[in-house]
Amino acid sequence: MLNKFGLYIFLITLVILLSISSCFAAEGGTRPISMGGAFVAMADDAHAATWNPAGMAWQEDFELSYSAILTNRDKYISGDFITDDYFVICSPLKSGYKQNFESRGAFGIYYQTSGYQQNSTDTSITQPGISYARTMFEDNFAIGIGASYYDFEVGIPGASDNDTALSYNLGFLWYLNDKITLGCLWENLNEPSYSILGLDNRLTRIWRPGVAYYFDEDTVVSLDIYDLTGNTEDKGSDFSQDIRIGFEHYMKEDFSIRFGAHHPNSSVDSSKYYSFGMGWQRSDFLGMYAVNYYLDYGFIYWTDVPAGMEDYIHQLGVTLKF
User: Fold this and answer.
1) What is the DSSP-derived secondary structure letter of residue 116?
2) Cβ–Cβ contacts within 10 Å for residue 247, how many?
3) What SS3 state is found at 153?
4) Which of 79, 133, 147, 226 has its CA 20 to 30 A from that of 157?
5) Domains held by the chain: number
6) pLDDT, greater one: 54 or 290
7) What is the predicted pLDDT for the residue at 18?
């Protein structure tokens, strides 16, 4: 039987699980995160595999990306996790004729990890997955599908448990004109269930529409609405109609700055953060001019965190494009 301390930890764990059971979304990638997570209507690089698979349809080169939290790993938890480690590979499906790649689409493979460790409580989540996208109708519209496999593990003094869930996602991206793109992502279409320490949970279906406006080729502003239909309203934490705002501007051909606001209107204070980021890109990696590389930095500041936890993290990302 658990002592008082163990019972206390157990109750904390249950609160954590209740907070993520219906609204959990693992999100990674330094560039999207530094834009406040407003990336559904952009999705113009390898990160599209998780943020909106439809964006991969215009992928012309093999691309791989890795992002990691540099400070305060495993020390923060909220309704939206920023993954400790995020790795993605994205590639077009094409024959020897490059102009035919659109007819076969593109695929992405990704792997994310996140977790929380404090007061003898250890919660970890790993999420491998795969995505596929292709253009439809005309070259300015694409649809993408994805499948994510969640592995949940929880350990407290005297007890541990784990379970898995398989989730399906659907997205589209439409280049309305040279200024505006419209995107949408449906997460957890099948609303998969899982059980931890006797607590039954279900991943809620989330509808995330977005729009991006390109002032010119160097400047873009994006806006997403998380859970537009309010499915999370009566399922634990309420994230319905939460907005995300992002900004990116190339000050030089190879240097960019980014800003973001994540759920600034949310009723769940622990989900709010503001972000800043920088990007640097070059095409002379190790003297091989056929390889482009990108370095991204992100700083994330939460407005409200539990006692004893840091209210910021630093994140670094590296992307190679062949």
Assistant:
1) E
2) 18
3) strand
4) 79
5) 1
6) 54
7) 44
Q: Using CB atoms within 10 A of its CB, is residue 59 exposed (0-12), middle (13-18) or buried (19+)?
A: buried
Say how many residues make up the chain: 322
Residue ranges making up the domain that contains 292 = 4-321
Look at residue 271 and tell me whether its pLDDT is greater than 50. Answer: yes
Q: What is residue 271's DSSP assignment?
A: G
Asked if pLDDT for residue 163 goes beyond 90, the answer is yes
The backbone torsions φ and ψ at residue 270, rounded to the nearest 5 degrees and listed phi first, read: -70, -10
- CATH number of the domain encompassing residue 156: 2.40.160.60
Contacts for 33 with CB less than 8 Å, ≥ 6 apart: 27, 67, 82, 260, 275, 277, 298, 300, 315
What is the distance, to the nearest Å, from the Cα of residue 195 to the centroid of all Cα atoms in its chain? 23
φ, ψ of residue 289 in degrees (nearest 5): -70, -10
CA quadruple 3, 196, 108, 138: dihedral positive or negative? negative
Q: Which of 37, 56, 300, 305 is nearest to 172 (CA)?
A: 56
